[in-house]
Amino acid sequence: MSRRRRLAALSTASLVAIAGLGAGTAQAASSPGKDQSVLRILHKMTLEEKVAQLFVLQVYGTSADTTDPAAVAANRKLYGVDNAAQLIDKYHPGGIIYYSVDPPNLANPQQIAHLSNGIQQAAMRQRVPIPMTIVTDQEQGSVVTRVPAPFTQFPGSQALGAGRRPRDAYATSKITGQELRAIGINTDYAPDADVNTNPANPVIGVRSFGSDPQLVSKFVAAEVDGYQAAGVIPTAKHFPGHGDAATDSHTGVPVIKHTRAQWEKLDLPPFKAAIAHGVDSIMTAHIVVPALDPSGDPATLSKPILTGILRDQLHFKGVIATDALGMQGVREKYGDDRVPVLAIKAGADELEKPPTDAKGNGLFDLQLTSVINAVKGGELTESRIDESVYRILEMKKKHGLFANPYVDEGQVAQKVGTPAHLATEQRVTDRTITLVKNGVLPLKKDGRKVLVTGYGAATTQTLAADIGKRGPATTVYQTGTSPSQAAIDQAVAKAEDNDLVVVTTNRAWDVSPESGHNGPGQANLVKALVATGKPVIVAAVRDAYDIAYFPEAQTYLATYGYTPATLESLTKVLFGEISPKGRLPVMVPVAGDPNTTLYPFGTGLTFRK
Fold this sequence. Notes:
- With 609 residues, the protein is α/β, with parallel strands linked by helices.
- The protein has helices at 3-19, 25-29, 36-44, 47-53, 69-79, 84-91, 109-124, 157-163, 166-182, 213-229, 260-266, 268-276, 303-313, 328-331, 339-346, 364-376, 382-398, 412-415, 419-430, 457-468, 485-496, 521-531, 564-574, and strands at residues 55-58, 95-97, 133-136, 187-188, 233-239, 281-284, 319-321, 351-352, 434-437, 449-454, 473-478, 500-505, 536-540, 555-558, 588-590, 593-599.
- An 8-stranded parallel sheet has the order 7-6-5-4-3-2-1-8. The chain has a 6-stranded mixed sheet with strand order 9-14-13-12-10-11, sandwiched between helices. Strands 15-16 form a two-stranded antiparallel sheet.
- Helix 10 packs parallel to helix 12.
- Residues 433-606 form the Glycoside hydrolase family 3 C-terminal domain.
């Protein structure tokens, strides 16, 4: 039997499953308003299969049946199995999440499509055939992007916010969704619905559309619509709002000190907009918000927040997904065996990426067993588990996964990274570059000598190549995010031999000398270059806040990312090929004084071509 016929046969099996599995028909008939075909599947499942359906797991390898030694070793450490197919046979989880970590899942579009089909084949040959939720975090931009080129690399959220056109967000999310679906990824953990009101936020920043709740709401709604138009399940995150965090929830427990009134004004609107546009899934945040729940529990484990607010007050009827359960923000207060039980009791449906212990051994089996035992011991009822499983199955049916969970591997090249998609990428990106301060632009296309220095080997090399195409002779000297005094001195020496300096910065505002921070090196680099008297152009390639730490810079642009398309757009602005159209989607405060404005929201200079 050919591969195409095998996939068709398995699809037929899934249709048979949703048409009715025979068991539980009487119970299904007693649930008015519910999808009876989904109920028939639910009632065929054992308790163990139901609980497993709640989990979205990471697995290693580029194929479902991988024998790669590194991937096999990593999977055995997590689950005691070799690969994704064996994981599904053993546990029957509800979803798989893809990562680009080593050993990766994501090498190229053709390979990803084959991996996805293999995972779905394993799922559809189970006793109760249920298609998999296949997930990744493709927020786009330069910070949280999993699928590599030739997948189209659109600008991220804050760049789109700078462009001020929600229709661009709709177009980019629709194309992103189409390309994800073409490689078998049916769920994207995007858009980010956080309102980044804290310039020192260590984990959100440019992942947010901006600091204004109305702006963020418009773009979140547009992206929800775009993903849904492409047939991909969007997930608005991180409820009830991670934008004012001063701690990274991967490593600690952020406490959001907004009053209830402040939360309703600042953090709530984008989630209301997502719900109004029919978002299928909302992800929780591992943050403590005393005004919403004074218990000290993180939102992921808070019944007042997930059930009291999200379900009862906002009337959200979709799937509530947790952020990754290996993050410190959710592990700080309770043991790993208690976390999934408490999350379900709080109102969560989908449990993402269980943790590992100190030696890297997986704790999924512990968490799965803990939930099963909580039901058998009476702490959780099976009907409560059924509620979550029903929502997950219903979502899968709504998006056509039961009808056909597979993708046509022969069509991938015609659907991913197409010339039309790449043209849209460059067109949208061209509108995002924000000129905050101007002393020398636009540049002439002449033979002057230009030093390109600052953050990132790929960033500086690509930018220098783009500049060199316009006539200048370029020299590259990459100094990273924490340049030493010796590196600064070397950059200054090179500047003396050039006519112009272009320096890129990445979170130069993170000046703390403590471990895990960038320190003051980037700010010192820019100040030293300005002191040479040479014309200096600074491009912040991540957060726009950097200029607060070197206000003497005469020319400053914000790009919000450093994809090749972004650096091309930046270069086009530098030479006046296009006029800068971006406007700050955040307020830039004075260094050390977050309540005093240096550059207001909406700042954006331009010039005639």
